[in-house]
């Protein structure tokens, strides 16, 4: 049986790379791409649907466009914010904490993915291994936090990891084949990482394609015992 997959945030560097690899995979029947920048060029295999994850209505509208008979073997959530073009930037110090900016980061990195779970979980293919993967970040690990800073981004990813764990617990009974997972993609060349690239040795900076193919290898290797955990691009488990 061929598989159906969904990528939420398919306009991003990593989301787009994941979507392209899946489109080239002959074992896949259809790739549903969800993003704010949709184009009308859906094909038989690639379907493009608008979504704004800051709006619950938009998420509802998006799932209403999925055909009733579609069930996903993989749902890959690649949305996220670290900074934007206007006011949001990672806090260097306590004095940089701001209510509005913090809420914006939590909305995109935590509340949005939680709502994505709420509306997309019913579309998982319960008959086979089915994976719901969320791009998180190593800095969301409390035990790994050695240098501080980045208050809202760190906290939003820590909370995301908790939500992934909760999904895994709640859905295990109704869908024992499900695997909910947080993923650390490595440091990847993208709009999100651009301001920080200079701090990274070039050998440690992945292209989106490199990261996407490593992450898909990790997903292939997962079993239901891994549900609720957080893995890096190389398959190493990251502790909370
Ligand atoms: N790059 C890295 O080094 C790195 C490291 C660790 C973790 N991560 C995580 O990996 C994920 C992807 O990062 P990336 O590097 O691929 O960044 P990116 O290229 O900036 O992609 C971010 C994606 O999030 C989408 N997005 C933001 N707000 C949205 C909203 N309200 N509704 C719908 N989509 C929204 C963007 O859509 P638009 O195109 O519409 O803006 C874009 O598709 C993030 O969660 C990030 O935290 C990245």
Order of helices and strands: EHEEHEHEHEEEHE
Tally of strands: 9
CATH topology: Rossmann fold
CATH architecture: 3-Layer(aba) Sandwich
The neighbouring-strand order within the major sheet is 3-2-1-4-5-6-9
**How large, in whole angstroms, is the Cα Rg?**
17 Å
Taken from the alpha-carbon principal axes, the silhouette is: globular
Mean pLDDT: 96
Specify the number of helices: 5
Terminal residue distance: 36 Å
Summarize the structure.
By secondary structure, the chain is α/β, with parallel strands linked by helices. Helix content is 32%, strand content 18%.
Map the helices and strands.
Layout lengths: L2 E6 L4 H11 L4 E8 L10 E5 L5 H9 L9 E4 L21 H22 L9 E6 L15 H21 L6 E7 L2 E2 L16 E2 L1 H14 L7 E4 L8
Parallel strand pairs: 1-2, 1-4, 2-3, 4-5, 5-6, 6-9, 7-8
Helix pairs in contact: 1-5, 2-3, 3-4
């Amino acid at each position: 049986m061929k598989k159906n997959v969904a990528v939420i945030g398919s306009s991003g560097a990593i989301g787009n790379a994941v979507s392209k690899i899946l489109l080239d995979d002959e074992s896949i029947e259809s790739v549903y791409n969800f993003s704010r920048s949709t184009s009308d060029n859906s094909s038989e295999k690639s379907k493009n649907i608008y979504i704004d994850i800051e709006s619950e209505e938009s998420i509802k509208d998006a799932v209403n466009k999925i055909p009733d008979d579609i069930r996903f073997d993989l749902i890959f959530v690649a949305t996220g914010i670290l900074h934007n073009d206007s006011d949001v930037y990672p806090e260097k110090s306590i004095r940089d904490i701001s209510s509005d900016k913090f809420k914006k980061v939590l909305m995109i990195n935590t509340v949005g993915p939680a709502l994505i779970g709420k509306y997309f979980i019913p579309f998982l293919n319960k008959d086979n291994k089915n994976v719901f993967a969320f791009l998180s970040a190593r800095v969301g690990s409390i035990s790994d936090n050695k240098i501080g800073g980045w208050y809202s981004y760190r906290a939003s990813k820590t909370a995301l990891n908790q939500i992934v764990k909760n999904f895994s617990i709640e859905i295990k009974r109704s869908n024992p084949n499900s695997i909910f997972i947080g993923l650390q993609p490595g440091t990847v060349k993208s709009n999100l990482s651009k301001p920080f690239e200079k701090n990274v040795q070039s050998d440690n900076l992945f292209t989106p394609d490199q990261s996407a193919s490593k992450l898909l290898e990790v997903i292939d290797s997962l079993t239901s015992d891994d549900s609720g955990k957080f893995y890096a691009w190389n398959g190493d488990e990251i502790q909370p």
